[in-house]
Specification:
5-stranded parallel sheet; 459 residues; 17 strands; binds zinc ion; 2 domains; Urease, subunit C, domain 1; 13 helices; alpha/beta; TIM Barrel; globular
Length: 459
Amino acid sequence: MKNQGFDIVVAGKLALPDGRLVDGELGIKEGRIVAITDRDALAGSERIDAGGGLVLPGVVDAHVHTRSEPAEGLTRATTAAAAGGVTTIVDMPYDDPTPITNVGAFIQKTAAVDREAITDVALWATIAKTGGLDEIEELVSAGACGFKVSTFETHPVRFPSIPDGELYLAMQRIHAAGALIAFHAENDDIVRRLGARLVADGRTDASAHAEGRPPVTETEAVGRALELALATGARTHIVHATLQRSFTLVERARGDGADVTAETCLHYLLMDEGEMGRQGARVKINPPLRPASELEALWRLLAGGSIAYVTTDHVGWTRDRKEGLSIFDAKSGVPALELFLPLMFHEAVVKRGFSVGRLTQLLCENPARRLGLWPQKGGLALGADADLVILDPERTWRVDEAALHTPAGWSPYHEREVRSSVETVLLRGRRVFERGEVVGVPGGGRWVRPRSEKSPVAA
Ligand SMILES: [Zn+2]
């Protein structure tokens, strides 16, 4: 006799949080996973049988910029997310024209998420360059996942570098409030000095970008952030680290007692600095793509547990922001949300022998744990939101930038061959992507509030 009464039953190879891959079934009721069993044990109003396909938790992309490119926004970014099996994004606060530095702006953005998003969305906040410290406690109470700050000035108001004294005081208060602070770690002064020299020398070519941001510009700022983390006790995370040495410094600070983690991004795992010669400003990213030896080191660190998780740092710049400009005027960053899971599956599992369990730790479980979204998000577990991806691990296809869902209209991964394809995506038990079509609608996604309990990442 089958256990009856589920809204939907999903059968396939289930990727469970302890790394086990089991042939089984999930029972879903009112948007949550309420049963995990062997095959043929459950019955419900609807059934999805993945056959030999994988059933993975929906991806949690902890680093996305939906409102840097006004042509993109929450609806179009989360459309791309849904198509790629990313069911929760954590959106960065550097919205154009004004960043999320106070509780009024934060609450407005949560309402925009509830109106516009197709997937679920949690939110980072930030602090103003100066004078914004009194907003910290209120932003934590309002449900910010943490505070993203930068030591490099992308824009004086929207994306400023925060002076060291302000950072020190902010981190004392962030620690007292039990929140997380995340650093874009680059040394502003060295980057500016080298950039001015390259411009004076008449350099406008793509390789000038990496030349102006040598490794010390990253590692010096990582070291500074780690010392501040040790001194203040603040839970600290380094975003988009690109160098083996950055992760070594993070490990040492952890050994010294700091609560610190670091992520790398899809692009640093798939492209080395030679790609600047082939694609030019399209692959201008801060920090820049690094030599192939660093790319290989990142893969070793990922296998070994030194990298907490992987993100996209997605930004949907349209072509005119990237092409036909001096390398110093082109925008930084690349779109990737829709390709994140298939490309990572291809590179990590198919090519490099990672287990499916390790992949889901890096893309789903660990970002959810670090940002307070676990166990609601990030795992196929009893009581969790029924956010899941049915992935065909065998199907091979080729990326076509014209077919992607962001307004960017281009991809640094154009024409790559990928084995593994996203077939069906459920968000809280409802289909948001199926048979190649996004079927989720704006307002179907929700703002997600983090929990206050802390949960260590799995190595
Ligand atoms: Zn970013």
